[in-house]
Amino acid sequence: MCGIVGAIAERNITAILVEGLKRLEYRGYDSAGVAVLDEAGSVQRRRRVGKVAELQTALADEPLLGKLGIAHTRWATHGAPTEQNAHPHFSTGEVAVVHNGIIENHEVLRTQLKELGYVFTSQTDTEVIAHLLHHTLKALPDLADALKATVKQLHGAYGLAAISVHQPDRLVAARSGSPLVIGLGMGENFLASDQLALRQVTDRFMYLEEGDIAEIRRESVQIWDAAGAPVERESVQYHEGAEAADKGEYRHFMMKEIHEQPTVVQRTLEGRLGQNQVLVQAFGPQAAELFAKVRNVQIVACGTSYHAGMVARYWLEGLAGIPCQVEVASEFRYRKVVVQPNTLFVSISQSGETADTLAALRNGKQLGFLGSLAICNVGISSLVRESDLTLLTQAGPEIGVASTKAFTTQLVALMLLTLSLGQVHGSLEEGVEAQLVAELRRLPTRLGEALAMDTTIERIAELFAEKHHTLFLGRGAQFPVAMEGALKLKEISYIHAEAYPAGELKHGPLALVDKDMPVVTVAPNNELLEKLKSNLQEVRARGGELVVFADEQAQLSNGPGTHVVAMPHIIDALAPILYTIPLQLLSYYVAVLKGTDVDQPRNLAKSVTVE
Ligand code: F6R
């Protein structure tokens, strides 16, 4: 989604801004721009539709030099992805603004500003902020004061940064619903919507909190909280290895991240397993006490993280006997929800900044949940900060827009939650916890075995390259895995893919099946296997081509129109984690064959910080 970078220094900052934008490219965007205050004291900009590389070419043709500037990658919401709509937006050539988020009352403000004589050159909600700030500066000449007054008139979500030709020694920023971080340097300071953008210039960061306004100068940073009081925000040193920085031996980040799964699953388990049981304190010191009171679980998440939640429902009810509901955050947040007593609210998110999931958590807090647990990959995210308990997945930065390693580590975390709740309540069957703990320890090896099927899956991908539609089938906890497989395929190869619980086939979707509609099935060796085999017959009888990922002991064999890929044997409870791997590989290879942009699929963003 949109990205912000800002800088104030004693050196030329254009290259820093552009490098920051490049580091935010993975988030998905459709245009990019940069505005710099030049030596003559006027603000100049370059904007381009398309990749940051286009902007770099524009800057090579017509360079911009300056010591203060802001830059942006835009993911279109209001107005098409055109150069006019790309940020930074100007007001009268005196004020420049970049903005992430959505201003809901932009139409009313636009009308008022037009009446005041402001001329709009874009269809964006952001241009309204630039003119409003310019107008406010007439009465309040200090940029930070004017910004404080401006944001009071905005309804919606924003992370924004602004500069003015009249105050060349500062950059101002405001956060409400869209994250911002200040990067602290020596005699220079920076701003970004994600610290990854600034890792080339600093490893010291200060995170703005909701409602904060910041004034950033070369030698100082001043922050005011939502009530307008000056506040200090803690600065943190970031020590993460450079693992996300490049693709290593891989052609795409997605493939690198798929192959990291044995390592990151291992890391997510580290320090969380005792000899025969899960260490409940991994969820925090108050976890055991809180878990003892839990009678129900409500899971809320979006996209891939929602699919992880759906798998967890099978585990929580099937293994721990705890009633569980799962809902997509964008529905949950706007629905009248009846909360059962003693319900634990669990949010799942890779980024911890997904607008709908955050809003659902905030609503949840008003609804009388027993407490909140965030399963998240980013320790410094809003979701983590606002939840009572946290279990961090240790997937490391995920750069590919299509989530892979975040999903499998979420599943591991959710299995730890299931076993912890079962342990605290004594509701697990005898020996189950010890067995699953032992199997979890073996899981990284199993995942490595599944990854070794790489070339087989690459061959199978050829079946899909010319197809336009696909069905994914699964039963039980493999149904959400099928949903995740379908999501991956549609996201990166743009092939229409739908997932169904296999038993639903004859209630409608079977009508679609013919030789042009391949059907992908995940078939571990469990009590549903025989029923699944009948469903597969139904597909074959209609000429549908089958790709079946089946347990090596499942006694399914290749035949005309049936491609069986033997999977390493695994305990049924952990099969959803293992069977995810071939589906990720399949969508990856189909996308490569189709020549799509694997890491940055069209129209999508990595972190969905707007509704
Ligand atoms: C799909 C994908 C998305 C995210 C969703 C939630 O590959 O990545 O569906 O899962 O946008 O994002 P997080 O987990 O960051 O809340």
How do you describe this structure in short?
This protein is 35% helix and 22% strand.
Mean pLDDT: 93
CATH top level class name of the largest domain: Alpha Beta
Secondary-structure class = alpha/beta
Radius of gyration: 26 Å
CATH fold-level assignment of the largest domain: Rossmann fold
Strand content: 15-25%
Largest sheet: 8 strands, antiparallel
What overall geometry do the principal axes of the alpha carbons give? globular
User: What is the helix content?
Assistant: 25-40%
- CATH homologous superfamily of the largest domain - what is it? Glucose-6-phosphate isomerase like protein, domain 1
Please count the helical segments. 18
**How many distinct domains?**
2
Multimeric organization: single chain
State the distance separating the first and last CA atoms. Answer: 11 Å
Annotated CATH architecture of the largest domain: 3-Layer(aba) Sandwich
Which ligands are bound? fructose -6-phosphate
